[in-house]
Design a protein that fits this description.
Blueprint lengths: L2 H34 L44 H14 L10 E3 L4 E5 L4 E9 L32 H4 L4 E5 L10 H6 L6 E5 H22 L2 E9 L3 E2 L5 E2 L4 E2 L4 E2 L3 E9 L5 E9 L16 H8 L12 E4 L2 E2 L2
Parallel strand pairs: 12-13
Antiparallel strand pairs: 1-2, 2-3, 3-6, 4-5, 6-11, 7-8, 9-10, 11-12, 13-14
Length: 330
């Protein structure tokens, strides 16, 4: 390992401690042991071993851009019309009075999100833009007129409110960045809905390093034909003094809005030759030295998928990607 890589590894280790580096190291260790000893697989996300002996950051891995496992016809099992009819009838009977929840997707004019009603923060937010879309319509758009507002499309039980953030010490941090949606006033205003917000540390994070990451992603539109971005929160485990793993996070306000421990951005860029490249970033929700290179926060996309419980860009086969985190695959 060269000295530059060592500095990057230990720089990020100092920033995130066992919480993040331990998580990544655990995943990498799990993947290695699973490949070497299938009978002794270890699915831990955090390990108690010395994280400095494990792979550090930046790390390069594979992206688990997979589709759900379905029968060959992509539909329900082929077991006869009688079975299907009986099954449908039984499901209808069981769920006669409604499903507890399947209403999580919200489509706005210029972005889409999946809302976590328990934590009052989105699971993920998806954006798409190119160079032309990022051109500001200065005659029609005025960000100063935007106001943070509760999202009335969310059931009142599950909405976050401005009062939850007041006095909390946290910023209302955009997931879909306002700077990505400057073509129409409605577009930028919708990014100020609280369903698009998460509690973020202000100085050193939301106003600094996270903002640097947002600007970096926007600049990708200068070099690529199309840019697709998925952003969201993570709640990562940490090994504590008793040697056990815990997921601990603060909640704020009367609605108990969750404060994520980390945030991720997964980016897919389409070149002018229709090639696809991917980058994945995870940042701890803490003050970060502005001198820390963004490349220090690159992680293997599959580790984010495992931690978030999500498959990102699952319509893209892995063999369609030409680069991951800047590393050429073909």
């Amino acid at each position: 390992m060269n000295s530059a890589s060592s500095k990057a590894i230990f720089g990020l280790t100092a920033l995130t401690g066992a919480s993040f580096v331990g998580w990544v190291a655990g995943v990498q260790y799990s993947l290695r042991t699973r490949n070497l000893h299938p009978a002794k697989r270890d699915d831990r996300l955090v390990v108690s071993e010395n994280v400095r002996s494990m792979p550090g950051l930046p790390l390069f891995g594979t992206v688990s851009a997979a589709s759900p496992i379905l029968p060959s016809n992509g539909d329900v099992p082929e077991m006869g019309s009688k079975f299907s009819t009986v099954t449908a009838s039984r499901i209808s009977q069981i769920m006669k009075y409604g499903f507890p929840g399947h209403d999580t997707i919200r489509s706005y004019e210029d972005f889409v999100l999946s809302y976590d009603r328990r934590n009052r923060v989105a699971h993920w937010v998806f954006e798409h833009f190119n160079k032309e879309m990022l051109r500001s319509n200065e005659n029609a758009v005025d960000r100063s007129k935007c106001e943070f507002k509760p999202d009335e499309s969310i059931h009142p039980y599950f909405r976050s409110q401005n009062t939850d953030y007041k006095g909390s010490g946290y910023d209302r941090g955009h997931l879909a960045a306002a700077g990505n949606h400057k073509r129409h006033q409605t577009h930028v205003q919708q990014t100020f809905l609280l369903s698009n917000m998460a509690p973020q540390v202000g100085p050193g994070f939301n106003r600094n390093s996270w903002n640097r990451l947002e600007k970096y992603v926007r600049r990708l539109a200068d070099a690529y034909k199309e840019v697709y971005v998925c952003t969201g929160p993570l709640y990562l485990p940490k090994i504590e003094s008793d040697g056990k793993k815990y997921v601990r996070y603060e909640v704020i306000g009367s609605n108990h809005v969750a404060v994520p421990t980390h945030f991720y951005k997964i980016v897919v860029c389409e070149t002018h030759r229709s090639e696809l490249e991917m980058e994945a970033f995870v940042m701890p929700n803490v003050p970060i030295d502005d001198a820390t290179p963004l490349q220090n926060f690159r992680v293997p996309p599959d580790t984010v998928e495992r931690a978030a419980g999500l498959l990102f860009f699952d319509n893209i086969s892995r063999d369609k990607l030409t680069r991951i985190n800047g590393k050429k695959l073909k």
